[in-house]
């Protein structure tokens, strides 16, 4: 697989704001009635069909959410980087994105066990257990991808260096398998890649080789349960969390609940280890408070992740229309201990 990633990072940030008038790159015919955002969504893990439009919409608005495996979730927690993690829930098939009144519904009726009502929303479920992914957070950072001269505040992966547009953990043991398999997994699923979307919107030559083998690690269907697709055994514990997930206002204690369930899951089953659940939740919440502002003092000991995320959010709020240079990352991330990236000069 040959991909030209220099100056891009399109799969690591939400670049939709850079499109004029919110227009989508017109790379294929979406068809009548297709969702306008379909080009910017990963294939739905529940969707067994070939339709371009996903059958279930996520509650959040992250167009490039990368699902982590259980072992990867545990590794981030063990390395004091639990603040980097966040869950993704889905609306039930055909359900409205807005909370519904108790006596009304929309779309097709879910099958028994496929949906749980939480915070007035029908959330996709397996065997009456709300289903979710765990991925990486995207705080706002000043970035200038695709050859742009002026930076813009964009939701950007916590591990992406805004200066070099390279991943700070690339090649590290923590580097997610899904990131390493991109865009090969999309090609294997005959699904458009971010490389192609960037080419359509901004030009350039990104995806230089579309050939692919038979990639491992897709984890589709039942094999994903407990390994990449997690199921919460106590829906009532997600009250309030689902609403805040939809609003993009999750707190550390909110994230800790599903992340702990993911870390305690057993691949191939719905079983949850209470010991691993308690251990994971305590690790993420250790020395931390419940509100986002407290993340200026990380709950993860020496980790740079939590304080850096909090600092990016604060600086973005206070900046107004001002966008600082990407080199601000040297202060926000580098001075807190974030790994350096090599740059592109010495790379082939």
Q: What does this protein structure show overall?
A:
This protein is α+β, with helices and mostly antiparallel strands. It has one domain. Helix content is 22%, strand content 11%. The protein is built from 9 helices and 9 strands. It has helices at residues 70-78, 177-180, 184-188, 194-202, 241-247, 252-263, 274-285, 305-319, 329-332; strands at 85-89, 115-118, 121-126, 129-136, 140-143, 152-155, 160-161, 166-167, 230-231. Strands 1, 2, 3, 4 and 9 form a 5-stranded antiparallel sheet that branches. Strands 5-6 form a two-stranded antiparallel sheet. Strands 7-8 form a two-stranded antiparallel ribbon. The longest helix has 15 residues, at 305-319. The chain is globular, with a radius of gyration of 20 Å. 42% of the residues are buried.
Helical proportion, percent range = 10-25%
Number of individual domains = 1
Average of the residue pLDDT scores = 83
Uncertain residue segments:
25-54, 100-110, 287-300
Indicate the overall shape: globular
Largest sheet: 5 strands, antiparallel
Q: Helices and strands: which structural class?
A: alpha+beta
One letter per element, helices H and strands E, the order comes to HEEEEEEEEHHHEHHHHH
As a whole number of angstroms, the C-alpha radius of gyration is 20 Å
Number of strands: 9
Strand content: 5-15%
Q: Report the span from N to C terminus.
A: 14 Å
- Determine the number of helices (DSSP H or I, runs of at least 4 residues): 9
